[in-house]
């Protein structure tokens, strides 16, 4: 049996080796062992590996080893889909270069003061880590000089595709030296990502690290069927009895992060919101507080939680179910990272049963039903905590002489027993948080039919309701043809909405996708057809959007106009079909049929320019 490969065997530079030894690294992960030698030799790679496998070190360590520290110009550029991931990667570079004197790395992203970025770039940096939009801004300004760029990394390329950045990535690639080394990392390999690799990488070596688990065998996954109990009360019950260290709770909207954080704080939990409306300094401080234990619970949106890697996060709660399985996998990936164990809890409303089935089908893992802790269970837990506090106080041999004398005198003067005094004191202590808890417990019917989907009994007629809540007279033993499996993204599961922004307001599909995805937490892959008219537009979104989500979307602004989203009735408006303007600020013309913000869905039939259905306006 061959001995394991060590970092010292990989020909990394001496300063880099010293840095990784100081942080305790000895043996590279599979992606690191495979990628480092290729990148050290200047080769291009396409790496397929899941988040949490150590891919940041896989490219940072070899590229730092090839760095010319005397040249204070960007030699390494890393593109990341979100500001959180950009910050995380920049921190990793700083950590791995701790033994390289004079090293400078700069994260650049939207929402951060442009002046400070310009000042840092002018002083000189060796590595730039940025989101595509802000990197493009600097390239257009001329403030980012890539003439000496040696290496370019596309991190989480499939996520950049999902968020609608793939055109921006190609634009940036075309504005970098042709002699650069390129490393592309992606958890999956969609056709569009494969096309980028074929077009811009030179004879890349493919490295595929098979994931031992799609959603983590070390992550326990359970769900609670929302029925008869307020979600906040249900969450409180779980927090009462579930032993956790750190927790991330996912909601769909920015507003919900603040509202839920306030409700949990009022119940005595150390909780804080994390969303895109917070300035970057506050966001970073929130994550740091979670890391060092000053904060136990963070309530976040999908976009805000991107890239968070906090070891003490033992639990993830999907307070609002995500609209697609990919978002679910990314959410629960915040726990159980690098082999650690974790637990993921999913709240599912009856009308969301089809989403639960879709997630199970995509991840190929069952999500088991959890019983909501009863009032008796919570009471028992509080009593155990209370008695433990008493036992701990007695065991610490605290000097209780003063209190013994005080209560003995009280007992004698008032002719009451020590037991009665102890009961009165216990009552006073627990008044703010009563030991006895009374809940109305409702157990929803959770039977699965032959398809694995869920049915609820209709008490009025004894017939079943299907996954949409509609009454069904179909016999349970029907043929497969009678029981079609519908995908969530199909047209019948979509609703058309009207928004009050259009071509006359210089709106683009990418603007609309970005606004809805960021605010409603809907994956861009689940935002359907967008049609632009002069004074308004229409967009197809998943059916059953919560009322609070629609209320929030009404206020979201695109091109400085509120969306004022409503269900589309097909009436009114100017339906003229004037040609769209060319994409601004780009030397590269848009390919026909493409638009920023939504990945292309292709058919084998190429007569329709590669699109299934109508091309977007």
From TrEMBL:
Keyword Nucleotide-binding listed? The answer is yes
Q: Which SMART domains match?
A: DEXDc, HELICc
- Enumerate the Pfam families for this protein: DbpA, DEAD, DeaD_dimer, Helicase_C
- Indicate where this protein resides in the cell: Cytoplasm
Molecular function in Gene Ontology: ATP binding; hydrolase activity; RNA helicase activity; RNA strand annealing activity
Q: Which GO terms describe its biological process?
A: cellular response to cold; ribosomal large subunit assembly; RNA catabolic process
- Please tell me one Gene Ontology term that the record gives under cellular component: cytosol
Q: Catalyses which reaction?
A: ATP + H2O = ADP + phosphate + H(+)
- The protein here is known as ATP-dependent RNA helicase DeaD
């Amino acid at each position: 049996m061959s001995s394991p490969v060590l970092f010292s065997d990989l020909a990394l530079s001496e300063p880099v080796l010293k840095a990784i030894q100081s942080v305790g690294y000895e043996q590279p992960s599979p992606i690191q062992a495979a990628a480092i030698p290729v990148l050290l030799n200047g080769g291009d790679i396409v790496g397929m590996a899941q988040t949490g496998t150590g891919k940041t070190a896989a490219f940072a360590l070899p590229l730092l080893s090839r760095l010319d520290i005397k040249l204070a110009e960007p030699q390494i550029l890393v593109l990341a889909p979100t500001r959180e991931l950009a910050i995380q990667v920049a921190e990793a570079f700083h950590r791995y270069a701790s033994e390289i004197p004079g090293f400078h790395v700069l994260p650049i992203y939207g929402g951060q003061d442009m002046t400070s970025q310009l000042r840092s770039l002018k002083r000189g940096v060796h590595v730039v880590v940025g989101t595509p939009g802000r990197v493009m801004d600097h390239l257009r300004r001329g403030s980012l000089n890539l003439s000496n760029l040696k290496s370019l990394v596309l991190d989480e390329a499939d996520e950049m595709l999902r968020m609608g950045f793939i055109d921006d990535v190609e634009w940036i690639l075309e504005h970098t030296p042709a002699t650069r080394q390129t490393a592309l990392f992606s958890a999956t390999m969609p056709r569009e990502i494969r096309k980028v690799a074929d077009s811009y990488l030179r004879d890349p070596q493919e490295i595929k690290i098979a994931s031992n688990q799609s959603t983590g065998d070390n992550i326990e996954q359970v769900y609670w069927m929302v029925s008869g109990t307020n979600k906040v009360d249900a969450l409180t019950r779980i927090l009462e009895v579930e032993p956790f260290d750190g927790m991330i709770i996912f909601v769909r909207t920015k507003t919900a992060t603040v509202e839920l954080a306030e409700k949990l704080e009022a119940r005595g939990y150390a909780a804080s919101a994390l969303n895109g409306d917070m300035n970057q300094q506050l966001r970073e401080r929130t994550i740091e507080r979670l890391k060092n234990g000053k904060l136990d619970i963070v309530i976040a949106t999908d976009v805000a939680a991107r890239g968070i890697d906090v070891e003490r996060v033992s639990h993830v709660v999907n307070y609002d179910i995500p609209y697609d399985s990919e978002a679910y996998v990314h959410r629960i990936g915040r726990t159980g990272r690098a082999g650690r164990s974790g637990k993921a809890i999913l709240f599912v409303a009856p009308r969301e049963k089809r989403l639960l089935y879709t997630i199970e089908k995509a991840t190929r893992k069952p999500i088991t039903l959890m019983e909501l802790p009863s009032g008796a269970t919570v009471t028992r837990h509080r009593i155990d905590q209370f008695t433990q506090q008493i036992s701990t106080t007695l065991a610490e041999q605290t000097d209780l002489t003063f209190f013994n004398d005080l209560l003995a005198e009280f007992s004698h003067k008032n002719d009451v027993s020590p037991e009665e005094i102890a009961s009165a004191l216990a009552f006073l202590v627990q008044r703010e948080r009563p030991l006895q808890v009374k809940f109305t417990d409702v157990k929803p019917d959770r039977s699965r039919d032959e398809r694995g989907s869920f049915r609820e009994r209709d008490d009025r007629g004894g017939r079943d309701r299907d996954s949409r809540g509609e009454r069904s007279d179909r016999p349970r033993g029907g043929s497969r043809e009678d029981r079609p499996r519908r995908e969530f993204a199909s047209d019948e599961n979509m609703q058309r909405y009207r928004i009050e922004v259009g071509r006359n307001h210089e709106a683009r599909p990418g603007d609309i996708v970005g606004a809805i995805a960021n605010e409603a937490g809907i994956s861009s892959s689940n935002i359907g057809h967008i049609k632009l008219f002069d004074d308004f537009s229409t967009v197809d979104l998943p059916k059953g959007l919560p009322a609070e989500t629609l209320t929030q979307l009404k206020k979201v602004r695109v091109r400085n106009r509120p969306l004022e989203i409503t269900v589309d009735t097909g009436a009114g408006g100017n339906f003229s079909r004037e040609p769209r303007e060319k994409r601004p600020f780009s030397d590269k013309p848009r390919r026909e049929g493409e638009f920023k913000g939504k990945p292309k869905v292709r058919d084998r039939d190429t007569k329709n320019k590669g699109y299934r259905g109508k091309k977007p306006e």
